[in-house]
Amino acid sequence: MKLLLIRHGESEANFANYWTGWLDVNLTNKGTQQAREAGIRIKKAGVSIDVAFESVLKRSIKTAQLVLEEADASFVPEIKTWRLNERHYGALVGRNKTKMTQQFGEEQVKKWRRGFNEVPPLVKINQFDRRYDSLDSRLIPKGESLNMTSRRVMILWQDQIVPFLKEGKTVLVCGHGNSLRALIQYLEAVPEEQVDRIKVPNATPILYCFGSDFTIKSKTEL
User: Fold this and answer.
1) Which residues catalyse the reaction (predicted)?
2) Catalytic: 192?
């Protein structure tokens, strides 16, 4: 069983250094190129993708589609789900990280960014478009800790990703820094206090090979 994890390519928010969360920003030219190069590396490694999971944010969607194109897998099913969205950073969304560090201090900003149970200041009202209209409003947060993000990602893992893996499908999951960090923590049984050490660089494919009991047989950065 093979699982490919990849964080989206560099986004406009990554470049400008502000919290993005569920804000729908585009890839930079660099991010687009990173995604293409990731697909080329996957193809060179001889990995054949059977199905792709993406968030409903265009930086994830575009990255996945570029990866699939370069990996000769544009024809495979693509499943878009809000459960793979980046962590919702609440009232921090759109705020520059450097300026917030100056205002609130490095320690507090580090907690907001990497603390497992640290909830950011909540936004009063979400300003979202119709992509979330079909969701029960109780599912849509006004801000999340990494722990809260992990819980929604785990539902996706158990209900949708695992069945494909059990069928012998090679699954691509194109997510975001924190949604993938949550999944990696689960797969590798990383303690809560060490989650901040999990690094998920942009557009770097991570290939997991599992045994029949989902023990990790190998992990490779392509």
Assistant:
1) 8 (tele-phosphohistidine intermediate), 86 (proton donor/acceptor)
2) no
Beta carbons of 86 and 21 less than 8 angstroms apart = yes
Check if 54 is active-site: no
In CATH, which of 3.40.50.410, 3.40.50.1240, 3.60.40.10, 2.60.120.260 is domain 2-221? 3.40.50.1240
Residues placed in the known binding site for substrate:
7-14, 20-21, 59, 86-89, 97, 113-114, 177-178
- Do the beta carbons of residue 27 and residue 37 sit within 8 Å? no
Tokens 């785990």 correspond to 154
Burial class of residue 56 in the structure, from the number of CB atoms within 10 Å of its CB (0-12 exposed, 13-18 middle, 19+ buried):
middle
How large is the C-alpha radius of gyration of the chain? 17
Residue from 54, 70, 86, 144 carrying the catalytic annotation = 86
What tokens appear for 32 in the block? 């687009």
Per residue of the chain (222 residues), what is the pLDDT tens digit? 999 999 999 999 988 888 899 999 999 999 999 999 999 999 999 999 999 999 999 999 999 999 999 999 999 999 999 999 999 999 999 888 888 888 888 888 888 877 899 999 999 999 899 999 999 999 999 999 999 999 999 999 999 999 999 999 999 999 999 999 999 999 999 999 899 889 999 999 999 999 999 999 999 999
Q: Where do the structural domains in the chain lie, given as residue ranges? A: 2-221
